[in-house]
From TrEMBL:
Residues 188-223 form the EF-hand domain. SMART domains: C2, PLCXc, PLCYc. This is Phosphoinositide phospholipase C. The lineage of its organism: Eukaryota, Fungi, Dikarya, Basidiomycota, Agaricomycotina. Residues 1-24 are annotated as: Disordered.
Length: 839
């Protein structure tokens, strides 16, 4: 995976400027811009096609009747050389093509796609490899939150300059600028636009050169709403924002807890020296510096003012607690990349999940001709070998996170291929695979920590011997309990007055026995079949150490689970447990792992909302990563935390000793002012091209709180509903819809005919209740929508989702994403945030 560590933050005024063209700065060979003939590989055929790179617009172009455009920012991964071996073998191509192979994996119209290219020579391959990885690193750096302001501005200017200069003459006339503003959805009349054009054309040449264009867009991007805030902050100091006023702003408005030295460091990055006569001979420091409007604007949209500051932090939580005290990023049916009934089984699902810090993947293992195969049983999905999947897992498991990977296996194969399965895992995972002999194994009293298990693979599967033992114990205890109850009844019954009554009872019992015998014969069950012996390899059982799969027998005092016992619950079963015994489930999950997985009969692979089960302490809440829906979005938002390690420490209330916190129930208001949006993205067609004629003209913002069912009645005051707040109760799973938590939402008014810089300046107030101060289990969703569309069926224009407990207060810019959670390069939402307690 290409990293973007070479992207440095460079926001303060006076910082050195990048060269005008990002492409020239990267020294993209001219031949790659003009085009190179390469071999394009697909399922259907091999063909020669002209491939070229447009560094300014950030695209790969290739000859195709269906478009042939791959925007760099849509690429999820670049693979080259030996990393493409799986594809070479799949397409049955010679080994000598491998060292000239490039694969780009990207998303278009919500679907993962692959572009396979084979360069004609090693030199051409090297040129493409270097150029693509550099462009990809820059775009990925810009899609990781905010920041890199100078690079972001430079990329924007070159991209839109190139798009507007249709004739390629390096100048823009008024018609070019007018078309560009239509593309940007700027809400200006022709007269207003002509006035700005003339002001930018300082030499009255009738056209704009690049420097003129830069001045033009600077005026176009003017932010009056920030000017108001700046004026308010600086008014006490004669219109100048000095350090004293900046520190006051950070403390009172932004609710910052930073110390003075940290605030001075931030202030100095965005302030400029003030050369007054009194300060002319003084050293440059905060007392002789001030933050201009430009500096203040840069600060507000920088990582120093991020709405989710934890996102940029490395792993910071305590990783030495038992693994049961963490939420674990988990996937369901990881091998599928499409439909549950007819989708494709592939290694791709594992690679995608692992590169996004997933720490629990699933295998459905069946007998193959020679070796075990992975596929969705009793469906038309394709098959992939266990060996291929294990090799992919081994390669990508610890690239994003060093913490243990849980392999959740449903083993449907016979003993012989179970043995093969063990051989393959030992061969591929080696000493990193956790295992211990079945006999003489020391008793486990507490589960190890993620730190203890770094770079380890844990296999989770049902241990059929343990399952039978637990069932036998339960049957014995049930029989003993029934016998004790029967004895108590007999002892409590008065003696019979006549012998005839005893005879009557005996006759009735005999009659019932005869009826049962006849019923079994009618159904062909006159002889109870002997229970088959357990068919499980002892070698396979030796791989089940800290994650031994068992059946859930409830939480009564009669049931005793060892710390290593883990059971899997379907969402329907989990919902029943939440309603019947949530307290017991919370207590169980303090010391044991529980896995929850989506309803199997919902073939469209939609996801439940995982925080419903996280609120009960369940750690391994598995979702379908191939489905980009609300459940997927909430899961990704949760695991952006803690350095994207895939492990997040559970709230204190859900951990051992948190019982008193669970009794704490509070009520609050989420106060958010939707101020403005910047450069909302345009819709794109199936080829990835912007749709100009269907411009985004009437946006509004919908803010939603997704809240677990931790109280019987939600906090929903009449004042909120009267003001326009909408409440949606939680739902259980059906054949078409997934389990949902309760939701409160509020929408702004609609801004007509402006997708470039709409201003709402509208205050919203959303009520919510909380238990145990677990605000990190409430998720906030900001969705920018288009007026006139069906909100339930239509995807939002752009969105942002994060845990409420992670939101910083005050004025913040939210980075906006598409429905697949890829960040838009230039789109943001400007808001003011506060959480208010209700007495």
């Amino acid at each position: 995976m290409v990293k973007s560590d070479n992207i440095k933050e460079n926001t303060h005024p006076g910082a050195p400027q990048l060269p005008g063209s990002v492409g020239n700065d990267l020294e993209i060979p001219e031949a790659l811009k003009k085009g190179v003939m390469m071999t394009k590989i697909s399922d259907k055929k091999e063909k020669q096609a002209l491939f070229r790179i447009d560094p300014d617009e950030g695209r790969i172009h290739y000859e195709s009747r269906t478009g042939g455009i791959v925007p760099i920012e849509t690429i999820k991964e670049l693979r080259t050389g030996a990393d493409c071996r799986y594809y070479r073998l799949q397409f049955k191509l010679p080994e000598d093509t491998e060292d000239r192979w490039i694969t780009a994996i990207y998303i278009l119209e919500g679907t993962y796609k692959t572009l396979h290219m084979i360069a004609p020579t090693r030199d051409v391959f090297h040129q493409w490899d270097v150029a693509l990885k550099k462009l990809y690193a820059i775009r990925q750096g810009l899609m990781n939150g905010l920041g890199n302001v100078e690079i972001r501005r430079n990329v924007w200017e070159r991209q839109y300059w190139k798009g507007a200069d249709e004739e390629g003459d390096q100048v823009l006339d008024f018609d070019d600028v007018e078309r560009l503003c239509t593309r940007l959805n700027v809400n200006l009349t022709t007269d207003q636009l002509r006035k700005l054009f003339k002001e930018a054309d300082t030499q009255n040449r009738g056209h704009l050169e690049f420097e003129d264009f830069q001045n033009f867009v600077k005026v176009l991007k003017r932010r009056p709403e920030i000017e108001v805030i700046y004026g308010r902050m600086s008014s006490a100091n004669g219109g100048t924002l000095d350090f004293k006023e900046f520190a006051k702003f950070m403390s009172e408005i932004q609710k910052s807890t930073l110390g003075t030295d940290q605030l001075k460091s931030i202030f100095s990055k965005y302030a400029t020296p003030q050369r007054t006569p009194e300060a002319a001979d003084a050293p440059s420091n905060e007392s002789s510096s001030a933050m201009t409007l430009d500096g203040f604007t840069s600060f507000l949209s920088s990582p120093d003012n991020a709405v989710f500051s934890e996102q940029s932090r490395p792993i910071w939580q305590d990783m030495t607690q038992p693994i049961s005290e963490y939420y674990i990023s988990s996937s369901h049916n990881t091998y599928l990349v499409g439909h549950q009934l007819v989708g494709v089984s592939t290694i791709e699902g594992y690679i995608r999940a692992l590169l996004h810090s997933c720490r629990s993947v699933e295998l459905d293992i069946y007998d193959g001709d020679e070796e075990p195969m992975i596929y969705h049983g009793k469906t038309l999905t394709s098959k992939v070998s266990l060996r291929d999947i294990c090799q992919a897992i081994a390669k990508y498991a610890f690239i994003t996170s060093p913490y243990p990977l849980l392999i959740s296996a449903e083993v449907h194969c016979g003993v012989r291929q179970q043995e093969k399965m063990v051989d393959i895992m030992n061969e591929v995972f080696g000493e990193s695979l956790i295992q211990a002999p079945v006999e003489g194994r020391p008793k486990i009293t507490v589960l190890p920590s993620p730190e203890d298990l770094k770079h380890k693979f844990l296999l989770k599967a049902k241990n059929l011997y343990v399952v039978d033992q637990l069932a036998a114990v339960q049957e014995q205890k049930a029989a003993e309990k029934a016998a004790a109850q029967k004895q108590a009844i007999l002892e409590a019954e008065p003696p019979s007055s006549t012998s005839s009554s005893s005879d009557d009872v005996a006759a009735i019992k005999e009659g019932i026995k005869d009826l049962k015998t006849k019923w079994r014969k009618m159904r062909g069950k006159d002889a109870k079949p002997e229970k088959p012996r357990v068919k499980m390899s002892f070698r396979l059982a030796s791989l089940l150490v800290y994650t031994v799969g068992v059946k859930c027998h409830g939480f009564s005092a009669d049931v005793e689970y060892a710390p290593e016992h883990i059971f899997s619950l379907s969402e329907n079963t989990a919902n029943r447990l939440l309603k019947a015994s949530m307290t017991e489930l919370v207590k169980h999950n303090q010391t044991h792992l529980t896995r929850v997985y989506p309803k199997g009969t919902r073939v469209n692979s939609t996801n439940f909302e995982p925080h419903r089960f996280w609120a009960a302490g369940s750690q391994v809440v598995a979702i379908n990563w191939q489905t980009f829906d609300l459940g997927y979005m909430i899961n990704q938002a949760m695991f952006q935390r803690n350095g994207r390690s895939g492990f997040v420490l559970k709230p204190e209330a859900l951990r051992s000793g948190g019982e008193d916190l669970m009794k704490k129930r509070t009520k609050h208001f989420f106060d958010v002012t939707i101020i403005s949006a910047q450069q909302l993205p345009r819709l794109r067609d199936s080829r990835g091209e912007e749709i100009i004629e269907k411009s985004i003209v009437d946006p509004f913002v919908e803010v939603s709180l997704h809240i677990p069912d931790w109280t019987h009645s939600p906090f929903l005051p009449e004042s909120a509903t009267a003001a326009g707040a909408k409440y949606y109760p939680s739902t259980d799973a059906t054949t078409t819809s997934a389990t949902s938590a309760r939701t409160v939402s509020f929408s702004t008014k609609v801004i007509k005919n402006n997708g470039f810089n709409p201003v709402w300046q509208e205050e919203l107030c959303l009520p919510f209740d909380c238990v145990g101060d677990m605000k990190e289990l409430i998720f906030v969703e900001f969705a920018v929508r288009q007026n006139g569309k069906d909100d339930d069926d239509d995807e939002p224009i752009a969105l942002y989702c994060t845990p409420l407990g992670c939101l910083e207060r005050g004025f913040r810019h939210l980075p906006l994403h598409d429905s697949q959670l890829s960040q838009h390069l230039f789109s943001t939402l400007f808001v003011q945030i506060n959480v208010r307690d209700v007495e």
